[in-house]
Amino acid sequence: MISNGKSKTVIELHVNGDSHEVMVRSGDTLLDILREQLGLSGAKRSCENGDCGACTVLADGKPIHSCLSLAIESCDQSLMTIEGLMGSPIQQAFVDNWAIQCGFCTPGFILNCHALATEHPNASDEVIEEWMCSNLCRCTGYQEIKEAVQSVVRASGNA
Amino acid sequence: MIAKDISTSVKKKDHDGKISGQLAYISDVKVDSMLYGVLYRSPIAYGKVRSIRLPPLPEGYEKIGAEHIPGNNFVKLLHNDQPIFANEWVNYIGEPMFMLVGPKLDILYQLVDEVEVDFEEHPAIFTLEEAIKQKDQTGVFAYHEFGESLDVIKSIEKKAHRVIEEVYETGYQEHVYLEPQGMLGIYKADEILVKGSMQCLYYVKNALISALACEDDEVRVIQSPTGGGFGGKEDFPSMMACHVAIAAKVVKKPVMLLFDRAEDMEVTTKRHPAKFTYRTAIDEQGNILSMNVEVFLDGGANAGLSPVVLQRALLNSSGVYKIPHFHAKGYALKTNTVPNGAFRGFGAPQSFAAIESHLGHISSMLKRDPIQYKRNYLVKQGDPTITNGRFRDPILLEDMIQDLLQTADYTKKKEAFRAFNQQNKRFKKGIGASLFLHGCGFTGSGERDHIKAVVKLEKTEQDQVLIKVSNSDMGQGALTTLSKIVAKGLDLPYEDILFPDPDTKDVPDSGPTVASRTTMIVGKLLERAASQLKAGWQSGVAQEVVEHYIHEDMIPWDEETFSGDAYPAYSWGVNLIEVEVDILTGSVRIERVYGSFDIGRAIDERIVKGQIDGGMAQGIAYGFMEKMTSQLGKIQQKTISDYGPPTAMDLVPIESKLYDNPYAGGPYGAKGAGELPLTGGAPAVQAAIEDALQIPFYQIPVTPELIIESLTKKDGDARD
Asked: pTM for the full model?
């Protein structure tokens, strides 16, 4: 897969349980390919600099900023976008806690918090805050999002 | 579900599409044969265009410029000074001159890079300071002066025990809506359709009619789901709409214009930087005898909404206080910098930061507690406003203050902090308050003379009710709150009320989504429409009802003399903030935040809490974190992290409380709530930092750098 920035390579991406052959340039970000070629627009383009986390997707269960990841680096990973997460406890918790206003940060935040709840089922408030710092929300002031995560973590912690 | 109490929260209308990622924002939309646009922007701050040289354009790529505009080459807000494509003179770095359109974005960026423009450069005005110096010659967008005569003030000052004069400055604030600006223009044989992220459909539509010189039915505007606005999508989108509409008309294809974050930060409107001078005369007991205020706003390169922002800044320049012998004047001035525009609070956050700071400083000079000192001057029901209007409704401010002092255990805490600060060499704790209000709705007679809002309810044969208004949900919950108001009026389940994306083909002009007017003004009209529909309800029959704005009986507003009732109603707030300052690094940690608010009655408690939490976060960050600067006309912060809005770690849970004080002019008693929570954050955080360090600040944001500088200066002064 040696190429200059312009020549194209065919790679296979594994997204939400499906495999897709896509033609990419080495400089294409994962965000570009998800949105422009696979039509998965739930990953949002906002800062394209790793500041805001609106583009967050999961790679092997870990949240990554897809605007900073190259598509060609992602071919061996199992990727999940918001389109692949249906009916999860964290999504319901966002609704139940009014953790959504404009919604633009929501898919990225939900994926990050889903990974958090999976990885740290008994996460302390400090761990929750630390994880939440990789995503920005300009509407809520974060309180409602934190409550949503706490409700899921508490529920799974008790189980 | 039929809600008994309007304040009880319901599931928001738009949650499902937002948690599943299915809701399509404008940048998610793809249309067949869609082209993209990239704007060529002025690289200089002020000058005349001599010549433009384009690189050879590949097939399928075109330049769209002023020559393609059939109508007026400006977007009119208040003045005709905002060119759609600046083709003769440029007035700021980043001003759009023309647009290249074509199928591939990367090729467009490359082509724009290769454009060569020759300018005759002229000396530019880069700072508010320079603009103030030359304001008598040129560059005044708006000016107002009102209040007590200066002769009277002078004679009072002459006899006063002391006259305290302070200069205070506030900086830019950037909206940082998570969704950057975006607009799509679609060509159809008989109409141009524009879709995008926006707060004000009819502002956009009217701009299009003017630019395209076309009939009312030849343009159509649809609001896409909007990823945050905060005022940033009030005035700005009209310009982008003109760009894509003109391009679509020329190329006869859909044209999409999407800003990336750097472009959005560099060229879109921001909160006006401001400079204030407060001059206050006091007697021997510390009583205020007179106050004289000067306000200067940096409008940027065109007038935009600056004249109205100036009005709100002036109207709030006395805070929540009844000041004897008050005089104020203010200017909105031109600089060759990015135009400033609407931002949640609209001039008021600057003024409240200034007046709260000034009275705080006077109280510490007098060795009085700032809250107790300010309490002597609170306006009461029936008092005149500074423009000789009236505060007609009950004011709960005194109770709100009393409650909050008790809840927070203010007096004890203040003593405890003093003891802590004496013990602790490195960390200093402080507590500070702010008292504030927000005039709800448009300033002056805007609702009656300019907006003339109309709302419509449509009932289908299946007895479903559709809300037809031109107001946007940009996250604040308008879809839900307005639906609740209609559901309650009709005694129907909230779920039976439908609220399609606003489309000017389909909805009357119920005004823009600004000025904390949507719930109060549009909601009231919908409440009336619902009761009209209920009275004539015929099951199984399609019906339609329309309601028009009725101006409340008030003291007529006169913009020339700056007198009368500027607002029909006021919302009120008290904030209290506790901080800990690390004097080694200058960093400030927020420890507790209290917010008490009177917004009449909450239409939905959780939605209101969301407005409080998010608004206070923006207001607090405006006071000590968010710093944006311009150097020689160029915005220096190009990424979100350069600028620094709060993350989850910068804030603590906000302990908020609502005071029920129903307002007869609002639906079920509601007043405006959107802007108010931002207003008190900055002055309270400044006061808390001052309390911790026992030094005054004369500007916001109070950054770590400023803290260290001030501490060093204080040390130096102590040694001198």
From this structure: 0.97
